[in-house]
Design goal:
The protein is an alpha+beta fold. It has helices at about 25-30, 60-75, 115, 135-155, 160-200, 205-275, 285-290, 305-315, 350-360, 410-415, 445-455, 530-535; strands spanning about 10, 35, 85-95, 100-105, 130, 275-280, 285, 320-330, 345, 380-385, 390-395, 435-440, 460-470, 475-480, 480-485, 490-495, 505-510, 515-520, 560-565, 575-580.
């Protein structure tokens, strides 16, 4: 097993590690600073820098992205959507002459398809840290890791070890067979002794004859028990001998793996320390410092290699003033995540949040729009209520339950309106961006019953959604397992190894060239299930209109819980509610 902390580019020049210790020469800087081709005198500069985790791209970043995309498209004019996808970023900057231009970057290592980069003058900014091959510390320790890897491979493939493992497996099988066979024989003998004792009890033998036969039967029983014990001891001793021999060899492998883990951890920390990231004041912190107070103090692999940190690092190191920034996906979507060709995306939370929080700490940044409550003045419509339950029509933008920063929610409003309600109220939820029908329990008894109905899938739910584009069939079923993308919360991803089973049935209501209206029937209730199943290439490959996570942002997400049907938790009466969407 090779050390795989991250993908590292080994470069020939020893100056690579000193890249950001001093500004580049003017001639070198010109290579990365790209002036706009079009006249931008009419563009108004933003008052604040881009909030990288939720933004609408500024017109200048759109223009810069279009210019970079035109370079990328030169090589594959008809196949850009099918090449291996990567995330690119642009940073509009001002130089010390007051001139506006932009920097370009790619997420991950800077090694990309030669056919894409050759002759296209992409001018991607360098990595924050690139390892030179004259770094004796790293190279010597890497050589040790490689040596350990070779030793582990050699010992794991040793014919003697393989032979011992095969022998142990064979002996284990044989021991079980012989012991079970003897047990069967002894069981039959025991049955025969029992029958003979019953026969003795029913026959008129002399006491002496009866005593003599009973002693023989008892001796036979003791002898048989000893035979079983002896056979077990024989095989246990044989297995112990074989295992002892193989354990000696396995322990050597175990120790080598411990040594490798220790050395790998040491090298990992060394690499993390080399990633010294700046802010506009020139204050520097390495990855270990930036992640030490996070949930996972060990930085995820690839931290510091995303486009946004690269762009800001280059700007700060070369006295360029950041104006605004955007990142877009170029190429085919990954199989697990949803990335659409040419679409803009925010910076990832898992790897970039601690880094960018530091890098932008002393800059004037746009406020986080996710801290605003879009449903603050929107009424929550009550569709039905009695002493046990309440059914509401949740507006888009209102949380189902309180969030970290926004307390206003369906739960909070119902708790205020029904102060005597007992229990946790909430039985199921809708995404903040989704509108539609929700049932809440006002008593603990009602809550328990409704919860049971949801678990048993006795509750019927139907959604209406408008998706981008058209579909070939009129109905179908999507089954794609889903799990949280821990490096990019709250996004979900398709994962056949760790994902939870998720199934959705769908049916076309009406369709035109640009959009299709659907009924969606969630058989399971995974987070973002309907949104993922619509947007994923192996689903409908058509995101829901207004889906800012998996598609394109609009005035609202076109997803609405239109029908809800269940049995009243107390009266058992069948209740069905329908509310049409406002899109």
């Amino acid at each position: 097993m090779k050390l795989s902390l991250r993908k590292i580019k080994i470069v020939e020049t020893p100056e690579a590690n000193k890249l950001f210790l001093q500004p580049m020469s003017k001639s070198a800087l010109l290579k990365f600073f790209t002036p706009f081709k079009d006249d931008i005198s009419s563009y108004q500069l933003p008052q604040n820098f881009t909030y990288p985790f939720c933004y609408e791209p500024h017109p200048l970043t759109k223009l810069a992205s279009e210019e970079l995309q035109s370079k990328l498209a030169l090589t594959h004019p008809k196949k850009s959507k099918t090449i291996k996808g990567r995330m690119y970023g642009v940073l509009v900057v001002k130089n010390n002459k007051g001139e506006l231009g932009y920097l370009s970057a790619i997420s991950g290592n800077n090694i990309i398809d030669k056919s894409v980069s050759n002759g296209n003058n992409l001018n991607l900014v360098p990595m924050v840290f690139e390892l030179s091959n004259d770094n004796n510390y790293f190279m010597n320790n890497q050589a040790k890791v490689n040596h350990i890897n070779a030793a582990i491979t050699e010992k794991e493939n040793d014919h003697k070890l393989i032979s011992l493992q095969e022998k142990f497996a064979l002996e284990s099988k044989q021991s079980i067979e012989e012991i079970n066979q003897l047990k069967s024989e002894l069981s039959q003998a025991k049955k025969a002794r029992k029958e003979k004792r019953e026969w003795l009890a029913n026959n008129s033998l002399t006491n002496e004859e009866n005593r003599k036969i009973s002693i023989e039967l008892s001796r036979e029983s003791v002898t048989n028990k000893k035979r079983l014990i002896a056979l077990k001891e024989h095989w246990q001793a044989a297995l112990n001998r074989t295992k002892s021999e193989s354990d000696l060899m396995l322990n050597e492998i175990k120790q080598l793996k411990k040594d490798r883990k220790k050395l790998s951890s040491k090298l990992q920390k060394y690499l993390f320390k080399q990633y010294e990231l700046l802010n506009s004041k020139g204050e520097s912190k390495n990855l270990l410092e930036l992640f030490k107070d996070t949930i996972s103090p060990i930085p995820p692999a690839g931290s510091g290699d995303c486009a946004a940190p690269k762009l800001l690092q280059f700007a700060f190191s070369n006295h360029l003033t950041p104006i605004c920034m955007a990142e877009f996906w170029w190429g085919a979507s990954p199989k697990s995540e949803i990335r659409r060709h040419g679409h803009f995306y925010p910076a990832c939370q898992g790897k970039c949040q601690p880094i960018l929080t530091h890098m932008l700490s002393d800059m004037s940044v746009d406020p986080n729009p996710l801290l605003n409550n879009p449903a603050e003045d929107v009424e929550l419509e009550i569709v039905f209520q009695d002493k046990d339950i309440v059914v509401v029509n949740k507006p888009a933008g209102l949380l189902s339950v309180p969030g970290k920063t926004i307390q206003d929610s369906v739960f909070a409003r119902i708790k205020t309106k029904f102060p005597d309600a007992k229990g946790s109220l909430i039985v199921h939820r809708l995404d903040m961006a989704t509108s539609g029908l929700l049932v809440l329990a006002l008593t603990e008894r009602a809550h328990k019953n409704l919860q049971h109905q949801f678990i048993k899938k006795e509750v019927s739910k139907r959604y209406i959604a408008t998706i981008e584009g058209s579909v070939e069939q009129n109905s179908g079923t999507i089954a794609l397992p889903l799990c949280l993308d821990i490096l990019d919360r709250p996004r979900q991803k398709v994962c056949f190894e760790h994902g939870k089973y998720a199934e959705t049935k769908w049916e076309v209501i009406q369709s035109n060239k640009n959009q299709t209206k659907l009924f969606l029937y969630p058989i399971t209730g995974r987070t973002h299930q309907l949104r993922m199943h619509c947007a994923h290439p192996d689903g409908l490959n058509a995101p829901i209109v207004g889906d800012s996570l998996y598609g394109t942002q609009a005035e609202r997400l076109h997803l609405h819980a239109q029908r809800l049907s269940f049995a009243h938790p107390i009266t058992k009466e069948k209740l069905t509610f329908e509310i049409e969407p406002n899109f």
